[in-house]
Write a structure and sequence with these properties.
alpha+beta, Jelly Rolls, 2 domains, seven-stranded antiparallel beta sheet, 9 helices, 26% helix, cAMP-dependent protein kinase inhibitor activity, cAMP-dep_PK_reg_su-like, phosphoprotein
Length: 345
């Protein structure tokens, strides 16, 4: 499960106490602009001719505990698919989890443009990111033509990260339709969902026995670094002999374990919610010791190798090592249920 670029934002946004500073400017909108977190009236069109903008900037402090997610703006399934395709390879979207992406797509609002209209002016403050649904747009830097962007393309993504001035001018070659989101709304969504997820993870991790000695601050840091991943029945989570980079805790469902010792294929006791696996590869820098498959739908939360070593205190590591000693004797593995020899060779 890739570590998220903004999860990334959960680490820097952690917290009820921490304020996330975002800047909402009026330079990309006229007086008729309606924020992306409110529905755009049917047929509403935003237009701001190049060179006729106001250059005032205001700030908004986002407290995840107090903020709410934006009201979804209706889109047809075709529009949603086009937005998904246009942002699939964009770094600010592809490393976000599906839930966050879905809320961002829901918050995007439509903007229609006329041929010759200036959408972005080089040097002006940046606030909006655009996906092109219909139309063709030219990109100019210092008045020199650079390229064109058509249906399925996008532009302005740096506005979601920085308040730096625009680095290019974008004009409509034809009439067109864009879907857009502003930086404040984008950050509000990423922050709020990360905050909500952290609260859930923290509550869950407090119930995991191996972590019962951790202080609240340690649990919070652990939750910040964990990512969820889902598997369906029969999916292989880890395969014996492969290199391991993740530690897993089972949040929902159960997994089956099978170990091949060279002569026999042995089924080990299944693991359910609150149990963990994958620590041996990280503790001993060895290949995976068993193949683990999902038994029904399974939701796991994962911790990458570097975070595993950085965040888990010596007492937890030592407890894991002691527990791991039982793996060497499959007849006492997990202290429950014994084992089942599936095949011999």
């Amino acid at each position: 499960m890739p570590e998220n670029l903004f999860d990334d934002s959960r680490k820097r946004l952690r917290l009820e106490e921490a304020d996330h500073q975002s800047h909402m400017d009026s330079n990309e909108m006229d007086e008729n602009y309606t924020p992306a977190f409110a529905p755009i009236p049917q047929g509403h069109r935003i237009k701001h001719p190049c060179g006729k903008r106001r250059y005032s900037v205001s700030g908004e402090s986002i407290r995840p505990a107090d903020s709410s997610l934006p009201t979804p703006i209706h889109k047809t399934p075709i529009i949603i698919k086009q937005i998904e395709e246009a942002t699939r390879q964009n770094l600010l979207f592809k490393n976000l989890d599906p839930e966050t992406r879905e809320h961002i797509y829901d918050a995007m609002f439509e903007r229609t443009v006329l041929m010759g209209e200036c959408v972005i002016k080089q040097g002006s403050p940046a606030e909006l990111f655009y996906v092109v649904i219909h139309g063709l747009f030219s990109v100019h830097v210092d008045d020199a033509f650079v390229t064109t962007v058509g249906s399925g393309g996008s532009f302005g993504e740096l506005a979601l990260m920085y308040t730096n001035p625009r680095t290019a001018t974008v004009k409509a070659i034809t009439n067109g339709t864009l879907w857009a989101i502003d930086r404040t709304t984008y950050n509000r969504i990423v922050t709020k969902i990360a905050y909500n997820r952290n609260r859930v993870y923290e509550g869950f991790l407090r119930e995991v026995q191996i972590f019962d000695s951790l202080e609240p601050e340690e649990i919070a840091k652990l939750a910040d670094s964990m990512e969820a991943v889902k598997y369906e029945d029969g999916d292989t989570v880890v395969r014996q002999g492969e290199t391991g980079e993740l530690f897993y805790v089972i949040e929902v469902g159960s997994v089956d374990l099978v170990k091949h010792d060279g002569r026999r294929e042995i089924q080990l006791p299944s693991l359910g919610p609150g149990k963990y696996f994958g620590e041996l590869a990280l503790l001993n820098d060895t290949p995976r010791q068993a193949t683990i498959k999902a038994c029904g739908s399974v939701r796991l939360i994962t911790l990458k190798r570097d975070a595993f070593h950085r965040l888990l205190p010596a007492t937890v590591i030592e407890n894991m090592r002691r527990h791991a000693e039982s793996y060497n004797n499959v007849s006492t593995y997990s202290g429950a249920g014994g084992v089942n020899v599936l095949h011999t060779t």
